[in-house]
Amino acid sequence: MNSRYHEDDGQQPMHGFPRVAYKIAHDADRTGTIYRRFDRLASRNLLLLEAEIAELEGRQAEYDYEDRDRPNHPRVQESRSDWKTFEELANGAKQPNEVERMELAMTIRGKLREYHEALAAHQFLLNLERPAETTVKGMRDWFEARNTRFGRPQLWGRSEDRFRDVDDLVALRVPANQDRLSLFVLNNFGVFFKTRSSDGHTAEISERSVANAVALLSSLLSAAVLFGSMVSMCFVRNVYAVLGMVGGWTVLFAGCIGFLTNAKRDQIFAATAAYAAVLVVFVSGTFGGVPGAGGTATNCNCTQTS
Question: Is the pTM of this model over 0.70?
Answer without folding.
Answer: no
